Amino acid sequence: MKKADPFYQSAKWQRIRAAILRRDGYICQYFKRYGKMREAETVHHIFPREDFPEFQWESWNLIALSNEAHNRMHDRNTNKLTALGRELLERTARRQGLAGYAPRQSVKNLSNK
Q1: Is there a domain that residue 93 lies in?
Q2: The model scores a pTM over 0.85
Q3: Which end of the chain is more exposed for a tag (fewer CB within 10 A), N or C?
């Protein structure tokens, strides 16, 4: 069984998680984009915190998702982003003016992992 990450138990994360769920109206933003309403149970790091820790607390990097949508963003065997997760990351990078951002790996190279 996978060990729980203490990051997600921290008071700071719990406060930010609650704020993001409130900001997004407790509605899954992935399904909302397609006109479907699903309850959001998870807050997703668009730029994975393991690869981009400098963005882990940024509200623009966090999005409320249903568990179903969250599972579509990650390959649960490798914990790497799926094509859908990379698409969201690239869209967010463009919106944030980070298309060329590459402190450890480029946004483009995430698809090679």
Answers
A1: yes
A2: no
A3: N
Domain that holds residue 68: 6-112
Structure-block tokens of residue 85: 């997760």
DSSP conformation letters of 59-101 = GGGEEEE-HHHHHHHB-TTT--B-HHHHHHHHHHHHHHT-TT-
* Residue count (the chain): 113
Two structure tokens written together for 74: 């990650």
Summarised one tens digit per residue, pLDDT across range 83-104 is 999 999 999 999 999 866 644 4
The tally of domains found in the chain comes to 1
User: Is residue 28 assigned to a domain?
Assistant: yes
What's the per-residue H, E or C state across 46-57? CCCCCCCHHHCC
